[in-house]
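Can you make up a protein sequence with its backbone structure tokens?

===
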Amino acid sequence: MTSINIFSLKFQFDPIHTKEQYEKLRSDYDQLVEFSKHQHDESLSYYNEYTRILSLYNDLNTKSSQLQIDYESLQSLIQQKNEAYLQCQNELNNYQNLLYHEKKKSEEVDLLRSTLIERDSKFQQLVDNETKLLVKQSELERDIKLLEQNNFELKSSEQLFIEQLQQTNTEQLHLDLKQITHERNLAIVEKKQLENQIELNRQNVC
């Protein structure tokens, strides 16, 4: 605008000598006006762009502040989640340890139960064996009594046999006596073995 005013003043005081000069000056003036208008439009455009950029910058700052707030809130939530996760992990570890000990105790109880069942079965077997041995002992005692009775009868009859067979073969008589004595000794040995086996069985049960 200052250049235009100076030009206007100069235009007022300088005499115009020719029409060509006037036309030239008029053309320069129009160019200056056009240039000034163009500059004004550019300045206005720059100002509008600056205003738009400033508005965008303020919006970005606002969004950045909000994002910072949201980030800090998320960090707090993440920290809480991490603490909750660690607590759950600790509780899970404690539960696993408890489960391990309970399982170990259960295995020990099962082992003890199995041992008791095995011992009970063995005890029952020993009782059955003892019962069988007692039955056998009773049978042997009966047989021994019968043998003793027969032996007594044989001894009672021995003298009679000797007297009656004094005239017979003495060698055959000795053989018969040896056979009877042998059978009696075998019965006594078998009784002794049975008594020892019963005693050993009782000791195993105790």
